[in-house]
Amino acid sequence: MSELVAAGGTAMCTMGTAPAPVKVTSQAKVMAQGKPAATIADSQGGANIGPFGLCTSMANPAVAAATTAAMGVLTPQPCMPMPAGTWIPTKPKVIIGGKPCLTGDCKMMCAYAGSVSITFPGQVKVTAN
Question: Which one of 8, 16, 44, 72 has the minimum C-beta count within 10 Å?
Fold first, then answer.
């Protein structure tokens, strides 16, 4: 069983240095412990997922440029999520507002060579089977 992700959950990128809050904008009717439950459509950088601190991926043009300017010394830069699609659903039959739910075991790929996962679902009582 996986917990539904709700507003206030957190996510983390493998190339970032800090977790980011998850904001739910895809729907507002279905609640999990009094908070809107997220769907796989809640995957927009900035709108749904905040910054991950600093990015350490050389595939990020800002990191590559700063590292080059520092003569090859890795120079992390601000990490704004760049999703390469939506969250990959693990419970595709659990539908919220016409979209698969977002659960604590979902992953999403970053356009800059990392993957994003849920570190805290925002609530721990409502599960998806």
Answer: 72
